Amino acid sequence: MSKTKKLTEKIVHLAILVSIGVIFSLIDKYISALIFPSIPGARIGFANIIILIGILNYDFKDCLILALLKSLISGLLFSGLTTFIIGGTATMISFFAMYFLKKIAHETITNVGISCIGGLLHTITQLFVIMLIYNMGADVFVYGAYLLAISLVSSILIGVLSIKINIIYKKIYNNDNNKTKDFE
Q1: Any alpha helices (H) in the chain, and if so which ranges?
Q2: For the chain, which terminal residue's Cβ has fewer other Cβ atoms within 10 angstroms, N or C?
Q3: What is the pTM assigned to this prediction?
Q4: Architecture of domain 3-173 in CATH?
């Protein structure tokens, strides 16, 4: 296969993942509002499945583009500027941590573990950004305890789903971009 064809194929795969991530973000917004009506900001995090699939199958630059585009498109389409800043910052911090963990500890940590670390950092980052934007005290972390509990449960779900969906993804796209051993 020519270099151009491989590059085009990778761009198409990443575009599809970004699109699915945006769709998952929209679905997540509505399902989370139904499940957690009295807990503003609580989300299941379905779009993180796509970020985990990217981390399992692509290099850092491609994963970064995937996370940035998913965050940018979802944030600007489905939320206001402040929510975009809060969620986008949290997404990027959790992405860097998950990617770093995958690289240094891929033999000892599972997708579920990476998902849980990502969810934890996402929630904590959101709380810090909220404190900064709204000039709130550490009281926001009392509310954060509820979000962290939800994050733990949903991160386990997202980790398990990412394992299953990654198997399907690899079968569909016959993906040979994975340069490291899969850990499941």
Answers
A1: 3-35, 48-57, 60-78, 81-105, 111-134, 140-173
A2: N
A3: 0.85
A4: Orthogonal Bundle (1.10)
